Amino acid sequence: MRKEKLLGIAVLSASLFLGGCSATQSLSTGGGIAPQPQPSAGTSQLSVTLSDAPPAGVSVLSFEVNIAGALLQPMVGADVSLLPGGAPVEIEVKKLETEAAVLSTLSAPAGTYKGLQLTLAHPALTIFNGSPSDIGACKVNTTCQFKPAAAGPITYTAAPFPLTLVAGTPVGLKIDILLGKIIAADLSVSLNDPSDFVVTELTSVPVSGQPGKLDDNEFAGLITSIDTVNNKFVVQNSNSAMSETILAGAHTKFEDFDDHGCKSENFTCLSVSQLVEVETILQSDGSLIAKEVKLEESKGAKSVEGTLVSVTGNPPTQLQMVILDQEGEDGGPHLGDSLLVTITPTTTFDINLGGLAVPAGGAFAGPTDLIPGQDLQIEPGTINPGPPPSTSTAHVHLHTSQFTATVSGVNGSAITVTKLPAIFGLNTLTVQTSSATEFEDLLGPSSLTNGAVISVRGLLFKTASGPVVVAAKVRKRDND
Predict the structure, then answer these.
(1) Which domains are seen in the chain, by residue range?
(2) Fewest CB within a 10 Å sphere: which of 191, 271, 281, 449?
C-alpha cells in the first residue's frame, strides 16, 4: 500500500507540528547531530503556518514539499534533529490551514537555543489560474503544475530566539511562511530567505496547576495498532506519515462510529485500518491524549481525496479533481496531479455531517450538487495512467474544504467573506457558524471586524440562494 502525504493549500496557511515527547536527545560538545539518549529533559513542538496570498487570481491547490532537515541549534553543543531517524518527511500543505501535521514526537534537552534551521526541498506547486491572463505557460482557467528548484538551509535566529527549554515544560513554536513573498507573480518559488518567516512562541495552557499542556492538535490518519490493555492506539498521521501513540481517556469522545455499526461509541469501536480524525492534547510529559476521535472510513479501502476543480455535462457526468491524499493505491497518480473521474448512474453520494447541519436549500445527493472548491473523497475504480489520469467511481463523499478569505460582513452567526481562492469562481461566500463551530483566536462571529483574515474549514454546499460553507472551524489569522 502506498500512503502519500497529505495537505495542500488555498490562499494559504498551514500548520505543521514538530516536537513533542517520547524519544530524547542529549547535548554534546562539537557539531553534528546528537544521539538519542535517555530521560526526557524537555519537549519542543513546532507549528508551521503558511499565510498571505499567492498572486492575485491564483488558487494554490497543492503545495508539496519535503522537510529535508529540521535542527534546533543550542548555544553550546550539538544540533538537535527534529526529524525521526533523520529521514526527510514529505508533506502536502492544503489542509494545514486549520489542521496540523505531526512531524515528530521527540523530546529536546533542556537548555538555551539560538535558532532553528530548516531545509525545504523538492517543492511541487499545483495552481488554478483564475487571473485574467496567462501566467507564463499556464493558460487562463487551467490547472498547472510547477516544480521549482530545491532550496538550501534556512536559519532563523530572530525572536523568540534565544529560546530556553525547561525540563518537563512543553514549548511550542509557530512559524508563519509569507507566501506573498515566497510565490512570485511569475509563480516562481523561493524557500531560502529567513525574512520570509515569522516565528512566535505558543502559550502553554495550565491543566490543573503546573506544568501545562499545549493547544489542541487535530489531524487525520490510519490506525495501525491498538493496545486494549492500556487504552492506547497508534495513528499514522496522514499529513506527515509519522506514527503517533495516543491515549483514550475517560473523557475522550467517539463520533460517527454508530454509522458503521458500532453503537457503543467508545474505545471498543476502534480497529486497525480505520481512517480517523483525532483531536489531541499534548500533555506536560509529552504524551498525547485524545479529546475526540471521529471515524472517517471504517476500513482502509481504496480512496482518493482532492479538491474539485470542474465538472462536465448537464447533469455532470465527469469531474476533475486535484489529488490531496490517497489510501490503498500502488502506483498511479501522485499528490498534486489532476484526476478525471467519470460519474455513473449508479454512483452514490453521501456526507458525514459530524454534528454540522445541512443549510436550507442545500444537499449532497447527486452530481448536480457538485461545486468547484468542494473537497471530495472518492472510491476509484481502475486508474488509467493517461495522460491525463482517469478513473470512474462508485461513491463520492463530501469532506470539509479549507480556505482563507477576508471578512466583509457579519450578520448574527453568518459571516460574509471575500478575496476567495479563484477556484471558487465567486466574489463573496457565506460562512454559516453554529454551536458546533470551533473558533480559534476569536470568541465568535461578533468579535470579527471587516477586513479580518480568517481560515475556514467546513462543508461547502450549493444552495438556491448561493454557495454556503457550514463551518466546523474558523481561525483568525494573525499575520495576514
Answers:
(1) 18-207 (no CATH), 217-297 (2.40.50.320), 303-399 (2.40.50), 401-476 (2.40.50.140)
(2) 449
